[in-house]
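Final report, closing paragraph on structural work. Over the funding period we assembled a curated collection of sequence-structure pairs, and we close with a single example.
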Amino acid sequence: MDFKKIALDATTMSELMNGRDKMDTEELIKKYPDGVTIDFIDNVNMQQEDGEENVWIFVTEEQPNKFTFAGFVLAKIFNSILSEFEGDYAEMIETYNSSLKEDKLRVKLERAKTKTKREITKVTVV
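Its predicted structure, as stored:
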């Protein structure tokens, strides 16, 4: 019996996190100003102080050993893709994660400010 694997499975919210470090969006923006290809995506349920929240995570082709939490705009994109699968999450994840490189989503992430000077991450689909 592999107790270490059991423990890791019990404490990991997504297989995409296994063996990967977290990468902040800021770091992605700095390292890849021309954009990144989103290689794998997953949706996880996270326990917050004020309840539970579903969040999207992704792995890029450029940094396959790291995962990143999606912000509002990327989450909106991923939710739109999910709606195209009529809410069939398992089918969406299987189809996207196994698709060919040229079919993957490529995005450019940039820091921007709103009219009220609030910092946001601007997402451009390229």
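The first strand starts at residue 21 and ends at 22. Strands lie at 21-22, 36-48, 51-60, 66-69, 105-113, 119-125. We thank the funder for supporting this effort.
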